[in-house]
Design goal:
By secondary structure, this protein is an alpha/beta fold. The chain has helices at about 5-20, 25-45, 60-70, 90-95, 110-115, 155-165, 175-185, 195-200, 240-255, 260-265, 290-300, 305-310, 310-315; strands at about 55-60, 80, 100-105, 120-125, 145-150, 170-175, 205-210, 215, 225-230. The chain is elongated, with a radius of gyration of 23 Å.
Length: about 325
Amino acid sequence: MNNIELHVFQYENKMRERQGGEISLKNLYRFRIFWKIFVHWKTVTVHHPKKSLGQNFLQDANVAQKIVRSFNPQHDDCVVEIGPGKGALTSMLLERVPHITVIELDNELAPQLQTQFGERITVIHRDVLEIPISSLAQQGKKVRLIGNIPYNITSPLLFHVIDSRDAVLDFVVMMQTEVAQRLTARPRTKEYGILSVFLQYYCTPKILFAVSRHSFFPIPSVSSTVVHLDFTTPFKQQAVDDRVFRKIVRATFGMRRKTLRNGLKYLGVPTSEFERLSVNLDQRPEELSVADFVTLADELMPCADSIIQPTAEESHE
């Protein structure tokens, strides 16, 4: 029995004594949720949030409960929590599954989490961007990701997860509202970009709910949104060569204010190929739907070797 469970057990006994031995199920459930987070925050060593790590700790039990309920982990799921911080989500996840893996970069929090939750968690004390997500899969099970991540790594992390998409079932993640809006943005809007195309192509992004800034400590300067990324339902029309698709999307959005024609020239596509393409190359990339990009990639398969070659900038990275 860890420290949190001991506090809960002792307090429940006191409640029973006061109420003549009976506690309503509703009050008991509500008490367990709020008390566990409260005790957890009180029992961990005092930790001052590090601005360099983008730390804003979730401290609203209602929000934590809503996130875990949306995630709906099952007993046998391979659950990986990214950026557990002080364990607000961790404690509630362990109410539903026997064991989880957590990835925590902070030198102080990583050992505290291990002490707090013991053998029920595996703590990986590393930068998540340096860990192949596929390496976390267990016994042939795909990984289920969840996390309240530092907002300064949101985009890099999403691209990192995409690279391991074959090993990922889904991802429930709290992020900056501005980024969340980009994931589900439609063509011809200012939010629509590389992240929009990639996420809508490789999975199905869905905005779940907004979270008040006051649910965190310290209070962040931006609003937050919880999003679900379902990697079991990618875009129905898949490109013949994924590498060609990705290079075209990146190159054209890298020249966002110019037409598709300029982006394709940059990739070394001969201008003689342009006339046979069904996509209007006088458009800008933000005017194309995901399906349009797939069509463009497939029609340019004869130029695949040229397109997937590293550009001059990539060669010097």
